[in-house]
Design goal:
Two copies of one chain form a homodimer. By secondary structure, chain A is of the alpha/beta class. Chain A has three domains: 86 residues, Winged helix-like DNA-binding domain superfamily/Winged helix DNA-binding domain (Arc Repressor Mutant, subunit A); 135 residues, 2-Layer Sandwich (Nucleotidyltransferase, domain 5); 168 residues, ATPase, nucleotide binding domain (Nucleotidyltransferase, domain 5, 2-Layer Sandwich). In chain A, 40% of the residues lie in helices and 20% in strands. In chain A, strand 4 and strand 5 form a beta hairpin. In chain A, helix 1 crosses helix 3 and helix 10 packs across helix 12. Chain A is globular. Chains A and B meet through helix 1, helix 2, helix 3, strand 13 and helix 10 of A and helix 1, helix 2, helix 3, strand 13 and helix 10 of B.
Chain lengths: 428, 428
């Protein structure tokens, strides 16, 4: 499914090496074709994919049995022959759960396989104050409740993905480092799975990566093949979509924009290094600049509310606040230029507090980006504010579960008893 | 062909929309399968790709007629039935030409379709001093000669790709800006095509992008799916391979590492901005640091020789030279950390003068990278020196021509007179 969102888990990343994986890949190919091109008949699928018609029929039988597709009306083609029954993506009986854990809230987003939303809630917590053990217990409780709700809605979840603001070993489901949560080397997938009903696959991923996937699928610039998403909280994270795919890099540690070294003469960062981008554009720095005589900032509470306070002061013409957004906007543009020079996105989508203050930050940011990007305005990259609010990461997380199922449809539902598990033998 | 080099031009980037494009895509699929998995029979190709056997036979007939594959022996499988004839990639009758133009040389690299080298030469020129018109005339002359040589060798070229150190609009074949050549808005593909035999497709691309493709295909870390290549001349450019594909970005302006803003308090760059990475790690800066009392540097001539001079001084224990490589190495590591934080490559391959001085630069560079990368040594990214010397960009350029042919095999040779141009009708 080239150009499709969440394509990191499509089977095309591995050449089928045996009949079983070929079967899985072909199941995925058929369902991906329906997802991408819309309802159509078996014959049309065969013609368009180049798969043998008998193979398509057998694949469709299995997808029908797993209730991932359903039949819907007849297709009247211009050619001779009787009309074919049209197949369409179903998935109403399969659920997907995404949960974001952040410093002061849990975001929960449950959908069915066609991305129809079934659950959406935000739960205040003090994840950093609670310590890893209690935070994971709270997370498990919220997940159990959401799983029960999805099951009640007739769409038991095929999996759950958790979004975490930090460095994630996606393969092992381990949080290597989440500074704002105070987590280090936490085997989150394992801990969470132990607290959930057996056999629910649990994945853990970076919040900005998942939010970027959500922006690519549902956001204001959905479908833009080259975009960067920036989280704007105390910490600043990034998710990079390149050519319609999430850029993960060799270990999944891509998009760590917050600690780009941008000013050797700058201030010390929470990470111990000097002049990280986060010390220039994080919310704590904006608050510090806007209130130079105020108390030294420690943990910033209620980032959403603090940003709105600044917005009110800006509306009132407060000079310190105006100077602060101009300065932060300028550094936002400088970091944007680094992104443009390296990965040349079409759009940089601003999340978190950046989105709240976008109107105020953007003039300075865009001017600085255009000045510093080596291609100048020819790079045609613009900043835009996200409209997904605090749901982006959880939505993206649910989307990853959907993609897992579409990449390997054999993981859900019941196969037909007599379904061939290998393509019919061919002679000739 | 996921995970294959030069995959930006594979047909999978566009879903086939009609029978002709499906035919092209399937021809490419069959030849790509042979390239990736090695010689095999029609029956094996059908089984492994899921294509109908009759379709594979028809596709193979066309590839045979176009002399892109040939038959070579029999395949004895364990199953019943008579042995199938084995097919293998041929392409000895199709040439591919890559040419790099740089400040003081032209690099020429001609191959056949199986990447067997047929021509390799380096021609000294003064591209910057000559001005665009004369430089393009020299380039055209060298290309014409190489095309004639390839034709004489029995492999007339299917196309030529020119590597240029600058910002390229690949779509139009225009050099937007090549500061070290003194070019701006030069429609190079058009100019060159006008000076060549008709119907030779001409493409223009960024030198570092093409060199990165060559590293991925032939270099010391060939096959590494996530790598960055750095050119090290007076200017510094980058090419990013991500997940086995060249990262081009929205407009093809990716990898512009030379002008990353890394030091707001730094010196003025040739581009007019301040503190660009090039002002910290370019060869001119190394020479300036190594000879603080010397004449102010203008254009650096013979970068290769100048780097070797520094190497000799280092071997002799020259303190200024030692301090210079330590300082440049440190900044090399800082820029490496930006790359690692953003795109998380496994390896950063050093070209140009960086490769010549690699042993001297790497200790400081690697230490600084490990310190500044937010994942630290967990990101496991190392610097390595390229061994492709000055041929990397031209090799990559020839590879792009090969890939164009493999992506659309109908562009070369003669199709069989009776070859069906659409798949055989299917009943059933």
């Amino acid at each position: 499914m080239p150009g499709r969102p969440h394509s990191t888990v499509t089977p095309e990343s591995a050449a089928p090496t045996d009949q079983l994986s070929l079967r899985r890949a072909n199941l995925s190919r058929v369902i991906g074709h329906l997802r991408e091109h819309g309802p159509r008949s078996r014959a049309t699928i065969a013609a368009e994919t180049g798969l043998h018609k008998a193979t398509v029929s057998s694949l469709v039988d299995e997808l029908l049995a797993r209730r991932l597709v359903r039949e819907a009306g007849l297709e009247h083609s211009g050619t001779a022959g009787r009309p074919g029954r049209v197949l369409t993506l179903d998935g109403a009986t399969v659920g997907a759960l995404g949960v974001e854990i952040n410093v002061d809230y849990l975001g929960v987003h449950g959908t069915d396989l066609a991305n129809r939303p079934l659950i959406q809630r935000r739960i205040p917590i003090d994840a950093a104050g609670a310590g890893p053990e209690r935070a994971v217990a709270r997370l498990a409780e919220a997940v159990r409740r959401a799983l029960a709700d999805l099951a009640r809605a007739g769409a038991p979840a095929a999996g759950v993905t958790v979004a975490v603001p930090g460095l994630i070993d996606v393969e092992r489901g381990t949080v290597l480092l989440a500074p704002n949560l105070g987590w280090r080397d936490l085997p989150l997938a394992e801990r969470l799975a132990a607290a959930l009903p057996a056999r629910i696959p649990v994945r853990v991923d970076n919040d900005a990566n998942l939010a970027a996937l959500a922006e690519y699928t549902y956001g204001v610039v959905a479908g833009t093949a080259d975009l960067v998403y920036l989280t704007g909280e105390v910490g600043v994270g990034g998710g990079l979509i390149v050519g319609g795919r999430l850029l993960r890099g060799a270990d999944g540690y891509s998009g760590e924009v917050g600690h780009l070294p941008v000013d050797p003469a700058g201030r010390r960062c929470g990470c111990g290094r000097t002049g990280c981008w986060e010390t220039k554009v994080g919310l704590a720095e904006l608050l510090r600049l806007a209130s130079p005589t105020g108390p030294p900032g420690g943990q910033v509470r209620d980032p959403d509310q603090r940003a709105r306070e600044i917005d009110r002061r800006l509306a009132a013409g407060d000079p310190a606040a105006l100077a602060a957004v101009a300065e932060v906007g300028r550094w936002l543009g400088l970091g944007g230029a680094i992104l443009v020079n390296l990965v040349n996105p079409r759009v940089i989508v601003l999340g978190g507090y950046f989105a709240i203050l976008a109107d105020r930050l953007l003039p300075a940011a865009q001017a600085e980006l255009d000045r510093l990007a080596v291609a100048g305005p020819a790079a045609r990259c613009r900043f835009v504010a996200s409209n997904l609010g605090f749901t982006a990461a959880a939505r993206g997380a649910a989307g990853v579960v959907v993609d897992r199922v579409l990449a390997d449809p054999t993981t859900v539902g019941t196969p037909p008893v007599d379904a061939p598990r290998v393509p019919p033998a061919r002679t000739g």
